[in-house]
Design goal:
Helix content: over 70%
Strand order of the largest sheet: 4-3-5
Largest sheet: 3 strands, antiparallel
Number of strands: 5
Radius of gyration: 23 Å
Strand content: 5-15%
Length: about 280
Amino acid sequence: MRKFMKYEIKGSYKFVLGIIAVLLVASTIIQYNIYREINIGSPSGGDVVFRSLTVLVSILVIFGAFLAAFLHIVSLFRKELYENRGYLTFTLPLTGNKILGAKILVGAIWYAAIALSIVLYNFFLGSILHGSGWIGVVKRVISYIGPSTVLSVITSSIIESVQSIFLALVLIYLSIALSKVSIKNKRIGGLWFVIFLVLSGFLSFLTSRISAAFPYYLSLENFKILHYYDIVPYGTIFGNITQMSNIFGYINIVGSLAQIAFIVLGFLATSYLIENKIDL
């Protein structure tokens, strides 16, 4: 499995590095425009248009780069089922679990690499452009909120992001596998994206209802289990909508366990389809 992962990484790292480079350039343009706005003041009419246009283009480039990264990660699995390389892959001495596990781990690694590089680069560039003022703002925010609260918010965000990435990858690969299954000698084919949208929408709704039915949260600051109304005593204008997802610094216990269960079940279902139901 490790060798297979190395093969996958070698085959896609250049594309991912290109995506990261594009994102860094777009981030630099946005950060530089913010710097000019803060330090130079209101620009002239023509400069306003130019700055606005460059920022808009940079935002669109960032969106396009993330979309390209998503499609590339999807293609890492889709090629195995829709192109000739699948004949080689599925003759390797690897089970469906190992093939699928390697694909998911590589996809998660690339997602993490892209996200981490963007966050660290923007923090580093911001500290250079804005000097000690940038660091001072961060320190004041941390001191105002509290280091333990900041750490719990970051931890909960990471946990939720990891779960979301793994669930999305599993559902994408399950949808692609289902598109290759023959039903009465007919294949669904290119409708895998529709299957993915239906599955992800249904599971998101189911997770939200489960979370709302069991509104008990684990505080990552003191590791206490609290009811939703212990965290938000008077509720919010959104009513039960807030209960349907994790709150910053808190993890909905049953909702998170349900997501983990969906990931495991989706993984097992996809592995079963790969080994038993797909005719290359």
